Structures are given as structure tokens and as C-alpha cells.
Amino acid sequence: MELLTSRQLVQAWTRLNRQQGRTIGFVPTMGALHEGHLSLVRRAVAENDLVVASIFVNPTQFGPNEDFNRYPREPERDAQMLQQAGCHALFLPQVEDIYPAGSSTRVTVSDVTEQLCGLFRPGHFQGVATVVAILFNLVMPTRAYFGKKDYQQWVVIRRMVTDLAMDLEIIGMETVRESDGMALSSRNRYLTPQQRQQALAISRGLRAALAAYQSGCREGHELVGLVMKTLEQAGIDRVDYAALHQIDSLAPAVRADAPSVLLVAAHVGGVRLIDNLELTTP
Ligand code: PAF
């Protein structure tokens, strides 16, 4: 696996491979990789001639009281995992490679960012859209792969790509879960075993709502109520939101008659966790 440690190196790599007509799959990450990231890499390997991943803990998407400083950084372990998954190149930029001196351009996606996580993490999606746009310009991928666990991020990025006429395909992949239902996340490692047990209520609540949906329930407040009840029973008292939205536009939904998604953000032991489940049965 080639290591690309600067803006110049990744641009030269991209130019060479595009000139030779190769398709490039791209998996942007912040590192602390887990099976969810590796599933993206494996799909990218299956669909492209070459795959490049990036690891960059992007400062502009963290708020002042968030976990930027303590976010796990383990590039050597991550590089080994990427290589084993068949990744061809790893872009490991420094802050100046992404935000050169004087950097003052930011990408703002409106509407879809003004709800859910956007309300609780001001500036977060601007940071995400900006870094992803810069990474796309450097890597010029044919396809880019994102996990649908960050559902709103996935919708925001698709919106940006459409609006800015970016010439690539965005692929969203299903959330990878542990056998007990817990969605994989780099932030799970902050949880003590006891907190992890409590956090399981998030996926359990979503599954309870899914079971009701599969039995014919379409009322948003009932589906959300089932999630909230499960969180309350587990003693999770700081819930940023549990809400029903339409899948593509992410417009709030009163009923789940059209394809919908239930989204949750809750805090367990000071760790903010998100999860979601699509309700798309015809
Ligand atoms: O999902 C993530 O890991 C990050 O938000 C991303 C897309 C790599 C941008 O920093």
C-alpha cells in the first residue's frame, strides 16, 4: 500500500492513475478504524481498479467542547488494517495539506443541515462538507463510500455532490453491527462495559420500533415513542433527538407510509452516540 503524506503526493498519484484510465474508489475516514470502515474498503476494492483511503481527524467538524483532542489516533494499526482489506493507497495529510495558510473557503449545505445533529453540533456539517469537498478535489475519485450510520452526513454529502456538480458516485453502505445490535463506531471505545450495556438500548429501541412497523404501525409518534420508552427504561436521560424523517430529503415525517428513517442521538456516560434504522417495507 502506497503512503501519500502530502497534498502534492496525492495529486500526483491521482493524476497518474486517471491518465491511465483507472477507476478510483475512495474511503474518507478519521481513523480508529473498525469493521464498518473495512466493509467500505472491501466494496470499493470490488468496484474499482484502485482504492485510496484517507485518515484525517478534521478539526473544523468538531465543536469547542467536543472530543477532537481525545479522538483516537492510531495510524499504524489503521494502515495495517487497510492494507489487509486490499486498499492500494493511504492519504495521511497534515492540517496544512487540507487547510493551507490563509484557508478561508467553507462549503455550506443548508436546509438538510438545519435539523437533527445540525441543531446540536453547530458548524459540524460545514466542517464535514468542506473537508469532503477538498478531499474529493485531491483524490478525484470515481466513487466514494460512506457508512449510513452517519445518515445525515450521507444525505448532506449527496446534496453537496449534486448541487456542486461533482463528477463522482456516492455509495452508502449499511451500518455494521455487533452481534447484540450495537452499531460500530470509533466512539464506542470511550464506553465502559457498563455504559456499553446501557447504550445497547439505542439499537434495542430502534428494533422495537421496527417490529411495530413490520406489524403495520405507521404513526411517527408511536414509533418514536417506542424508542424513547426503551431509552428511558435503560436510564438514558440525555436524548438529543429521536425522530422520524423521510429517507432521501430527510424532511420530518408524521407517518412512515413513505420510505422513512428513524434517527437517534443520545448521550451515555458523556459519549454522544447516533444510530438509525430505515423503514422501507412497501
Ligand atoms: O465520517 C467521518 O469519518 C468523517 O465525518 C469524514 C467523512 C471522514 C469527514 O471528516
Written overview of the protein:
- By secondary structure, the chain is of the alpha/beta class.
- It has two domains: 2-173, 3-Layer(aba) Sandwich (Rossmann fold); 186-276, Pantoate-beta-alanine ligase, C-terminal domain (Pantoate--beta-alanine Ligase, Chain: A,domain 2, 2-Layer Sandwich), CATH 3.30.1300.10.
- The chain is built from nine helices and nine strands.
- The strands form two sheets. It has a six-stranded parallel beta sheet, with helices on both faces. Strands 7-8-9 form a three-stranded antiparallel beta sheet, covered by helices on one side.
- Strand 3, helix 3 and strand 4 form a beta-alpha-beta unit.
- It is globular.
- The mean pLDDT is 98.
- The site of pantoate (PAF) has 10 residues, from strand 2 and helix 6.
CATH architecture designation of the largest domain = 3-Layer(aba) Sandwich
**Helix/strand order:** EHEHEHEHHHEHEHHEEE
Oligomeric assembly: single chain
Number of helices: 9
Q: Alpha-carbon distance between the termini?
A: 44 Å
Would you summarize the structure shown here?
This protein is of the alpha/beta class. The protein has helices at about 5-20, 35-45, 75-85, 95-100, 115-120, 125-140, 150-165, 195-215, 220-235, and strands at about 1-5, 25-30, 50-55, 90, 145, 170-175, 240-245, 260-270, 270-280. Helix 2 links the parallel strand 2 and strand 3.
